[in-house]
Each structure stands twice: as C-alpha cells, then as structure tokens.
C-alpha cells in the first residue's frame, strides 16, 4: 500500500468504522495536603479492581456535579470542596450490562473530602481505602490515571 493511500486510510476511512468513545466523569477524592495528602479509592463492583468513583454524565448536572454525585453513591463522600475544572482524563474499557465493552474517556475532578459517611447507596457493594497518591497510582490499572495520581 502506498504511503499516501495508507495515510488516507488511517485518517479518513478507518475512523468511520470505529465506535465513538463514551464519556464518563470521576471524582479524585482526597484529604490532607503536602506529604499527608491521601486519595480515596473504591473497588469496582464487577471486577474488584481499585478505581476512582466514576460514572456517566447526569441530566441536570454538569460534569463536576455528576462526579460529586458518584463520589457520594460509590464512596460515601457526604461533603467536600469540588473543583469544577478537570485535572486530567484517562481512557478505559467499561463492561456494559448487555455484555459488550465500551471504550470510555473519563474526566477527573478533584474533590477535597470534608465528611465521609458509612451509610451510602453502594456501601454493601464496594470497599474503600485511603492511600497516598503514589500508592494509589500503583493500585489502579489505567496508565493515564496512574500519571494523574503521580502528578497529584
């Protein structure tokens, strides 16, 4: 294949056959500052992997507010200071209820936790843990999320 034809295929034709990426939002919940800063991770319901609280955008809420809602539902963050600008994004595969896999781009919003509740919607379905950001970066699988946590 000529280089011009290959370039045309990669830039024009191939993208038409790819499914678009889905969009999710995540909350990077943290407490403390400097050397005492810790990040809150939760387990995924499906795989038990360590993740940030995350989910789909919500009607009537902007992306940051949806991330805050996910932090409440999945991790019990009852009160906190929400950053309204994302501090980064990462890509991941999401197993869908119907059995397929969707490629997602997830925007990450910082949320400084002021109050954590033990009684929250998914308390019986998830485990949560506070760890230093460097350790959190080692616990998650997504490379771009690891980088966000290392820089945090």
Protein model, in words:
The chain has 152 residues and is an alpha+beta fold. A hairpin with a 6-residue loop joins β2 and β3. α3 runs antiparallel to α4. The radius of gyration is 17 Å and the shape is globular. The mean pLDDT is 90.
Q: Quick recap of the structure?
A:
This protein has helices at 3-16, 63-75, 133-139, 143-151, and strands spanning 22-31, 38-43, 50-51, 54-55, 77-82, 88-95, 101-116, 128-132.
Question: Which structural traits does this protein have?
Answer:
28% helix; eight-stranded mixed sheet; 152 residues; alpha+beta
Strand content: 35-45%
Percent of residues in helical segments? 25-40%
Secondary-structure class: alpha+beta
Number of E-type strands: 8
Task: Map the helices and strands.
Elements: H1 3-16, E1 22-31, E2 38-43, E3 50-51, E4 54-55, H2 63-75, E5 77-82, E6 88-95, E7 101-116, E8 128-132, H3 133-139, H4 143-151
Parallel strand pairs: 1-7
Antiparallel strand pairs: 1-2, 1-4, 2-3, 2-8, 5-7, 6-7
């Amino acid at each position: 294949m000529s280089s011009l034809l290959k370039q045309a295929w990669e830039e024009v034709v191939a993208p038409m056959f790819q499914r678009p990426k889905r969009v999710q939002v995540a909350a990077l919940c943290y407490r403390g500052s400097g050397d005492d800063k810790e990040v809150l991770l939760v387990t995924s319901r499906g795989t038990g992997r360590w993740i940030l609280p995350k989910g789909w955008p919500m009607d009537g809420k902007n992306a940051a507010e949806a991330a805050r809602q996910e932090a409440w539902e999945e991790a019990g963050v009852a009160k906190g200071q929400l950053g309204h600008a994302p501090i980064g994004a990462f890509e991941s595969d999401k197993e869908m209820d119907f059995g397929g896999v969707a490629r997602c781009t997830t925007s990450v919003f910082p949320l400084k936790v002021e109050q954590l509740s033990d009684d929250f919607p998914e308390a019986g379905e998830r485990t949560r843990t506070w760890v230093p950001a460097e350790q959190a970066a080692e616990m998650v699988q997504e490379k771009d999320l690891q980088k966000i946590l290392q820089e945090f």
